[in-house]
Amino acid sequence: MNKDFLWGGAVAAHQVEGAWNIDGKGPNISDMMLVGGANKSRIITDNIISGAYYPNHEAIDFYHHYKEDIALFKEMGFQCFRTSISWARIFPKGDEKEPNEEGLKFYDNLFEEMLKNGIKPIITLSHFEMPFYLVKKYGGWRNRKLIDFFINFATVCFKRYHHQVKYWLTFNEINNQSNYNSEGSVFTNSGIIFNNDEDKEKVVYQASHYELVASAKAVKIAHEIDSSLMIGCMIAMTPIYPYSCNPDDMLKAIGSNHKRFWYTDVHVRGYYPGYMKKFFERKDFCLDIINEDLDILKKGTVDYIAFSYYMSFSVKGDGNIYLDYDESKDLCNNPYIQKSDWGWPIDAKGLRYTLNYLQDRYELPMFIVENGFGAYDTFENGIVHDQYRIAYLKAHIQQMKDAVEIDGVNLLGYTVWGCIDCVSFSTGEMQKRYGFIYVDKNNDGKGTLKRYKKDSFSWYQKVIETNGEIL
Ligand code: BG6
């Protein structure tokens, strides 16, 4: 890997910080979600139910432990660390004019601590953390007004932190909501709770459009504030393979990938691709897309593509000439790969495939900002032997290296997801663990919050020290 390649780890504010109602922070959307499980969706509550357990309220209390945690990251050799700025810490309700100074100070201190330890911040603006008030009062991203609220937030952040933070991401995994039948994905991406009888697909496309406009505006503003800033999009990259070389499977895979990745086309190229225009026409969606939006999309194309990679999917042709894709129904099993305890397909080669796919299509620098293995750990006397995690990461890093060293893709860095155990986004569990650092806390919220190094800690330390030579 080249000498500037950035190795590190990643989390999101709501999954680690806790301190959910401290120093002026308002409730965000993740604060309203109860704990779920491998086969149990997280319930979204309308108010905080007294006595109920909300895993993100305390999380791993990074808010009060960040110095200790950053010291551990430094010991592992991290050159960068990705987290997010919790929107509701800066704008507790979301529609205020002025930010909450206490919230801003927390990130002043956090970034300073990181930089003091030689760790570059990689910062996401919106990682499932919009103020819940915006959901209640405005209906989340179904409302065009959200663009202004987001831009106010983004501008405050760019102005305040541009000397400390060079790499930014706008919306985390903006394309999760392409699975429009998943209430959890639409709520966490867009703060939308569906009404009975509405066309969910249309609602999601409208919200997505507003987010893409907001993202493009943010890119433009960031560059006006400081032309050296690098602003990226962030895509959940789950390539969809054809089940076989049957031409029907091949075509279905093209249509399915269009539906998951059109977001990247707009972020990178600055306009809607032909297949989306035809799709909107056919569906007769009549979306609120004005000329000014199209202009801003052109002016705010991203500087790099950040993505998460955990798995690949597969589809079979089904005779639908339009190649329509409904993720809640259309995926099929890939017989060549195994799955995790949470049913996530494990496909290391898919990472090399992904890097090539994005490189061929866009020729922009890329950043792998999430990759990792959620697994049950056995903790005994302060020790966790997590060979399975090392094996997963080793296989993925090898594929990443092959993509860079053999295929010549342009990659800026790699951050392992959940480098310290944190609350699972999809299930709210603590025991779906990704970390190199074990945090003593269980699914029911009990534990001392003490941190311990797992076996993977020294393994990753060696990987970084040798710039990926020794895996
Ligand atoms: C991504 C998200 O979807 O995957 C993270 O950006 C999330 O927030 C990660 O934590 C892993 O998912 P989970 O559900 O296992 O925590």
Notes on the structure:
- With about 475 residues, the protein is α/β, with parallel strands linked by helices.
- The chain has one domain: TIM Barrel.
- The protein has 16 helices and 14 strands.
- The chain has helices spanning about 15, 55-60, 60-75, 85-90, 100-115, 130-140, 145-160, 185-190, 200-225, 245-270, 275-285, 290-300, 325-330, 350-360, 385-405, 455-465; strands at about 5-10, 80-85, 120-125, 165-170, 230-235, 240, 305-310, 315, 340, 345, 365-370, 410-415, 435-440, 450-455.
- The strands form 4 sheets. The protein has an 8-stranded parallel β-barrel with strand order 1-2-3-4-5-7-11-12, surrounded by 5 helices. It has a two-stranded parallel ribbon with strand order 6-8.
- Strand 11, helix 15 (about 385-405) and strand 12 (about 410-415) form a beta-alpha-beta unit.
- The longest helix is centred in the middle third of the chain and has 26 residues, at about 200-225.
- It is globular.
- The mean pLDDT is about 95.
- The structure holds 6-O-phosphono-beta-D-glucopyranose (BG6).
- 6-O-phosphono-beta-D-glucopyranose binds near residues 236 and 417.
- 6-O-phosphono-beta-D-glucopyranose binds near residues 12, 236, 308, 370 and 425.
